[in-house]
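Subject: for your reference before the review

Hello V.,

The reviewers asked for a structural picture of the protein, and I figured it would be easier to keep everything in one thread rather than splitting it across files. Below is the amino acid sequence we used in the manuscript, unchanged from the supplementary table.
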Amino acid sequence: MKKKKIILAAVLAVVLVSVVTLVVVKKDAPKTENASRRDGAAVSGGGDDDLLLVGGDPEAATGSTKGPDAVQKPAETVVGDVSNSPVSGNVEEVRSMTISEAVVIEAGDRDAFYNDADYKKVVPSDSKSFFADANEAALGEIPAKYDSRNVDGKTFVTGVRDQGYSYLCWAFASAAAMECDILKHYPSYTSSSLDLSEKHIAYYNVHKATGSYGGNIDDDYRELVNSENEENAWVVNNDTGYIAMGGVTDYCISLLTAWKGPVFDKGSDSFKSIYGSNYIFNDNKDKPSAAYGSEFHVQDVNQVRGSYDNNALIKQMIMEHGGATIGVNSDEKFWNKNHGNLYSHFDGELPPTANHEVTIIGWDDDYAASNFSAKPQENGAWICKNSWGDKTGSDGFFYLSYYDETAAVSNAAGYSVKTPGDEMYYDNNYQVGGFITNEISALEDTKNTVTAYTSSTNPYGVMYTAIGDEELSAIGLMSLDSYMQYEISIYLNPAKTDGDLTLKDLGNAVLTQKISSISGGFHTYELEKKIDLKAGDCFFILIKPHTAGKLVFESAGDNTYEKNYDEWNNLTGNIHNSNSASEKSYYVSDDGKSMICQKDKDFFIKAYTKNK
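And here is what came back from the structure prediction:
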């Protein structure tokens, strides 16, 4: 996501002027306005004369662009052919699904979740994030106004950042949300000094990273290449095209739950320039620090749909984590008061996917509907932190209507970050799924896809081999649905037949446990009993969904897609996706008697261990 638009009239004007005069722009010369952003903020330094070609158009069609042709469209889901042929009543038919990357978390069945007798005593893994969901009395205690910048005299919000001419609102929003969570739970950090690197996140989104524990995802990567050897591809040659990659929360979940960051914004992990096409692509050629060198571990990313019906869930998430990201539509016509408030609406049409990502840090139930450029149906707004510097809105913050139609088809996401010494800070992260999304376009979300099976309760699992003498302490799962319940079983050194697992030969489980989560997204589930592992032990994690839900997976393949250009017509690269199947993921057989090794996909099941 990002928010820029090429103005053809401006192009013609600049071309005409350039015929009769030569404009020389110095790197340190101040510009009176930032023509490439819709906020029009004054900026210091940077700027090429070609940046005059870029601006925000109040009358622009909805969506953002890549060159003159890219337009954000409503998200789409394509249901494909049947993927299995069940011959047992215990196995359900499923079909493969291709979903636009801006996948919206399904609402789930809240009543069934809380009324299931078998799960009455199961505490959801994200119960602290949604502390009042099962307690109507506690719901009544949620205040009408809340601001994470001042909670009983404490602030859980860092300063407003400036993404400049980058397309990296998604990285800035996620970094801001993680900073909120760290400040909320670890008082040794301060809002004035805590600054996480957006560059590190953005770089490893489209660069190969080695060093994952066990190496199972080292061959899952995407990169920008010049597949047709286009001449003058200086951005690709500089390896800085990643700065012009739009994104969504799924990118951050893939990277950060793999423990590829976050790291502090300093040294090579800090952007040297954020303005001027020559400068952002030339001055940021230094490679960030190692992918897996973070002292922080992201263990959960709780996601709920950003619709008005979920306001109470979003408020609880903000009170627990300090902030939550949300997708919005930043087209100029939806703003008011120097980008001080935002309300997107589409006259009954299906909203396009978001083209900008921000961070919610509070709310005001009484914020007047009359303040917006068009009047929503009722009062009430979220307080949001933007990434356009502190000259827009109110020192870089703005109000977003509760009834914003783009937010309603986006996900709000709250991050849970752990630091050394925390009980949930683990030493090792076993994983086989590298990326949730298959990335094709730098900007058009509907071209980029997520693959999944349609909803079922079919079992699936993963097999890992212990690298050292360790203690298995927790597992992690990705879900596209809310209010999910599972039964998990863990088996040590099960017998395999031609790579497959016969259920009757698995032996006795060393642990069987019921688990659940309120939100969608990625969750860590602590095990009721820690399991001792010796180096070389194989351990199989069997997941039996109790609630029917979609099953997201990474499809193996090696594909290079269309060219991507920035607003200045610089080639930023073709996206090359390379995903290998680990042959450690398993799915139930058609007769329900075996778990079949998957040769073409991997599931997002992680295992967390502590060293002995």
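For the response letter, the relevant points are probably these. Residues 3-70 have pLDDT under 50 and may be disordered. The CA atoms of residues 560 and 576 lie 4 Å apart.

Happy to draft the paragraph if you're swamped.

O.
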